[in-house]
Each structure stands twice: as structure tokens, then as C-alpha cells.
Amino acid sequence: MVSAGLDTVPGNIIMGVGLLASPEGQAIQKRAYEEITKVYPNGDAWEKCLVEEKVEYITALVKETLRFFTVIPICLPRVSVKDIEYEGAVIPAGTTFYMNAYAADYDPDHFKSPHTFSPDRYLSDTSSSLPVSGAGTPHYGYGAGSRMCAGSHLANRELYTAFLRLIVAFEFREAENPQQRPVLDCIEANAIPTSLTTEPKRFKVGVRVRDAERLERCIAESEERTGDL
Fold this sequence. Notes:
Structural class: mainly alpha
Distance between the termini: 19 Å
Helix content: 25-40%
Low-confidence stretches: 126-131
Shape: globular
Mean pLDDT: 91
Strand order of the largest sheet: 1-4
Largest sheet: 2 strands, antiparallel
């Protein structure tokens, strides 16, 4: 299960960091840090995020990253086990189906302003200019139905922990050289268009450590806790 996410989880993190570093990502990054600070005023988010998921905005950020970048744009094939009648036509048993997850994640009937990256669509408050999306599948980054990704819960926890820790530790800025900035279009960002999963095109971002002393302490404590593993 862990090995199955070796390319998809990093792809989401890489593209998420690229988005946070962009001009439109600055406000998202700022709010994310403020929300983390509200929930963990004592500065213990680094450790506690491993055992709890209390920062709703980070959870929403993860969901929007999974939707916006859809790192598996065409899901793995499925084969029908019986005839299916659809709009007057019969699709015979044994037919191979592919779900276009990218199209589903950008369906304006389900996601308002789908080409705008907005974690607020997954929050209950309506302060954002983008209303909360309708009920149903929150996104199709894991596929859908009984054959959707079996490791989705593990991946959600990995992404939550990664984004929270990255935002706690660093502030991301756009690269000074325009040629080194990320491509943030879901399809155009893929360096290998024929691959099953997105292989992000190389880019650079500026990184500033928020509190070097605290970061060193957090890393040292993490290494101490995992020293016997």
C-alpha cells in the first residue's frame, strides 16, 4: 500500500508547494499558517499532527490539491461483469472502462470555478467568493466507487502531515527567474504526458525558514522518537 503511493503522494506535494509559492498561493499559505497557529498556539503542531487532524484549513488544502492537480488523470481500467443498459444502448459484459478523473474534477456542475485553486470550497464557512461545492464525492483524485484507491486514508494522513509541517517550517516564494517557475496547469505540468501518473516538470521555489532554532529542535526530537525504527 505504501509503495503504491510512491509517485502519487510526492506528485501532490511537489505541485502543492509550487502552488503555495506562486503569487496566488501567498494568501493561501498565509492563512494556512495562521490557522495552524490558532489551533496550536504553543507551537506543538509539528508533533501533534502525527496523531490528530485538527486544522480544518490544512485538510481542505489537501483536498483541493488532490482535486486541482489530479495526478492520475485517467484512472486504472475496469471491466464490466454484466451487460449495462445506458441511454438506450447496451454495453456488453467484458467491456473495458476508463474514468476520466481530470474531467470529473473540473466539472463545473460539481465544482464551482473549477480552474481556481481554493481550499475554501471544502470549508463550511461561506466567507470565500467561491461557495462550498455540492454534496457527493469531494474529488476524484483517488478514483471513485468500490474500486477507488485502497490507500486513500493513509495518503490523506501523509499529505496532511507533510503540508502542515512544510508550512510550519518554511515560507515559500516564487523563483526570481520566470523560466524556473512551475507550470500549474494540471495537464501541462506533466513532464511525461503518456505516463499513468503526473511527473511534475522541474521547477524551483524560494524557501525561507520561519524559525531556524525551532525547526532544528523539531527535527532533533523527531529523530529521537524514531531512532529505534
